[in-house]
Amino acid sequence: MSAGSALNEPFEDLGRQRLAARFGMWCFLASEILFFGSLFLCFLVYRQLHPNEMLAAGRETNIVFGSLNTAILLASSVTMAVADKAAEEGLRRDALRCLGLTAALGLAFLVVKGFEYREDVEKHLWPGPDFAFGDSPARLFYGFYWTMTGVHALHLTIGIATVALVMLRIRQGRLPFRDSATLPVLGLYWHLVDIVWIFLYPLLYLGGRAGGA
């Protein structure tokens, strides 16, 4: 498609349109950083207040699942970056392949997380009446664990759905991906989801083990 087909009102040139799209996404990402940052801060405060119980609870997380999902998301960041670069170079087929890989890796993460959640429920690592640690402050750890990983999974699900929609529009010829700001903006969102997990991984999976070493 021509460059003009990618231009939307009220913008007069593609450069300003892309800049506005990126700025809007960065504003959104800033609000997400504030949200997750407040959760991280609260988690760290409670870990300082109840170090032994919180670290003991952390040692019950499945580090194999956590490490596998970390590798999966890191790989998805690479495929998303390559998709963005391919689109910039006008390589439609390569961009679609990398977007497909990105969505597939995102789904793989959710599948692995589903297995982990099932194991957690079977081990009563759910802050409910039959919680494995009783009324211990370890309940706080798993309150944060389920909240933060659940919200992260929701963000990832939105990202996967958006990637699938972008792929469909590119295949249908409805998205002038080479000149559009869609892929760069989508890439920013996807990388945020990955970065959030990079913080969750040491907080939830490594801290307890380091503390118990």
From TrEMBL:
<dbReference type="GO" id="GO:0005886">
    <property type="term" value="C:plasma membrane"/>
</dbReference>
<feature type="transmembrane region" description="Helical">
    <location>
        <begin position="95"/>
        <end position="115"/>
    </location>
</feature>
<feature type="transmembrane region" description="Helical">
    <location>
        <begin position="23"/>
        <end position="46"/>
    </location>
</feature>
<comment type="similarity">
    <text>Belongs to the cytochrome c oxidase subunit 3 family.</text>
</comment>
<dbReference type="InterPro" id="IPR035973">
    <property type="entry name" value="Cyt_c_oxidase_su3-like_sf"/>
</dbReference>
<keyword id="KW-0472">Membrane</keyword>
<keyword id="KW-0812">Transmembrane</keyword>
<feature type="transmembrane region" description="Helical">
    <location>
        <begin position="188"/>
        <end position="207"/>
    </location>
</feature>
<feature type="transmembrane region" description="Helical">
    <location>
        <begin position="144"/>
        <end position="168"/>
    </location>
</feature>
<dbReference type="InterPro" id="IPR013833">
    <property type="entry name" value="Cyt_c_oxidase_su3_a-hlx"/>
</dbReference>
<dbReference type="Pfam" id="PF00510">
    <property type="entry name" value="COX3"/>
</dbReference>
<dbReference type="GO" id="GO:0019646">
    <property type="term" value="P:aerobic electron transport chain"/>
</dbReference>
<dbReference type="InterPro" id="IPR000298">
    <property type="entry name" value="Cyt_c_oxidase-like_su3"/>
</dbReference>
<keyword id="KW-1133">Transmembrane helix</keyword>
<protein>
    <submittedName>
        <fullName>Cytochrome oxidase subunit III</fullName>
    </submittedName>
</protein>
<feature type="transmembrane region" description="Helical">
    <location>
        <begin position="66"/>
        <end position="83"/>
    </location>
</feature>
<dbReference type="InterPro" id="IPR024791">
    <property type="entry name" value="Cyt_c/ubiquinol_Oxase_su3"/>
</dbReference>
<dbReference type="GO" id="GO:0004129">
    <property type="term" value="F:cytochrome-c oxidase activity"/>
</dbReference>
<feature type="domain" description="Heme-copper oxidase subunit III family profile">
    <location>
        <begin position="22"/>
        <end position="209"/>
    </location>
</feature>
